[in-house]
Amino acid sequence: MDGRMGSNIQGPSLIKVPDWIDNPLGTYYLYFADHRGTYIRLAYADAVTGPWTMYEPGSLQLEQSYFPTTCPPCSLASGTSAALYAHIASPDVHIDQDNQQIIMYIHGRDVGRQLTRVALSSDGINFEGKPQVLGRPYFRVIQHGGYHYALAMPGYLYRSRDGLRDFEQGPRFFNDNMRHSALLIRDNNLHVFWTQAGHAPERVFMSVIAMDGDWMSWKESEPVEVLRPATEFEGVNLPIEASRRGYIDERANQLRDPTIYQQDGDIYLLYSVSGEYGIALARVEFE
Length: 287
Fold this sequence. Notes:
The chain has 287 residues and is mostly beta strands. The chain has a single domain, classed as Tachylectin-2, Chain A (5 Propeller). 0% of the residues lie in helices and 42% in strands.
């Protein structure tokens, strides 16, 4: 933690720093955000389990992202009401080994809507935002069969050949209350770890999508619960109440923002705890 960061902690994304980056801060970089933040946070460690040290300047800054830095011009859709603030959040970070660059997908608020853009970096710290609009907010991206697939909120699937432009919208899954997701492919099946606003408590489910045939015909399986608050750190001692859309500043009995990290055959799930009050790590095991 640092004095600049504040207490809202959400949207983790973890990478192992590639060996073509000189003089890294540590072996691992953990990116995350404040739901209303003006920059993407960065922590580093030499082990997946930490201890983690904050890099106080952070990584991508709002003014580098091509999102508005004030409202207006950022605005709500006509006829809607919600909290309005200029921000970037929910980073989804990937290593492009072929081009020796780090790719970060981020969402922010633009004119009349929230959406996703991308930023690129050669060192994992300093990023250059790109102006192209890729799709709806909260992209989680994974490669398969010559495509970069992106699942956005709430449940819209996109794909692109290079992952940087020309995302086409495909099928839709889940429901209007689906919130955050994480993606994992096993045996040509897309495993989606996701949460839903309005659940009491909000917790992590998993559904499976067989990636066979015409992608417009893909369907998700019935969800199974994989994780709910079980420790004080996760908020289990707090009242069980239905979660709501948007940011949350007080601790709550909720889990949000799942993301997947894989290394040496191990699968880890990172997620936000107590609403948006911290980040935890769990090992994923399939029976």
